Amino acid sequence: MKFFVLLGGLNAFLSVALGAFGAHGLKNKISADMLEVWHTSVQYHMFHSLSLILLAILIHLFPQVTTLRISGWIMVSLPSGAGKPGLLKEASVAPIRGKTIRIARALLATAGSEGSDRK
Predict the structure, then answer these.
(1) pLDDT below 50 — which residues of the chain?
(2) CB-based contact 81:45 (threshold 8 Å)
(3) Integer angstrom CA distances of residue 69 from 44, 53, 102
(4) Distance in angstroms (rounded) separating the CA atoms of residues 37 and 32
């Protein structure tokens, strides 16, 4: 659980730092369209960070639900796309990564059916 909190916190920090870099450092260096891509990427990065922190809380509350841990390890095993919007699209990794994240989040969403009784 501590691992997911640590990674979620580090990812949130990186999300804010990358967002500030894009807003201030890239403002006059890239096109408005690419700046929007950067913004979306950083926003997804923050959603991913919050998912990891929520996951840690849920694992603490429901330690018997193994689907939560599986979801967490799937999310952690994926490389982050924030800060590399063009690279991931060029490498054709984005569709696979997106589907895998959706699977991990679906596992997180359905973990409640595995058992909600606290022990």
Answers:
(1) 81-90, 118-119
(2) yes
(3) 21, 12, 15
(4) 9
Asked whether 41 and 83 are in contact (CB, 8 A), the reply is yes
Rounded Cα distance between 94 and 81, Å, is 8
The DSSP code sequence of the chain is -HHHHHHHHHHHHHHHHHHHIIIIISTTTS-HHHHHHHHHHHHHHHHHHHHHHHHHHHHHH-TT-HHHHHHHHHHHHSPP-TT-HHHHHHTT-HHHHHHHHHHHHHHHHHGGGG-----
Q: How far apart are CA 8 and CA 45, in angstroms?
A: 10
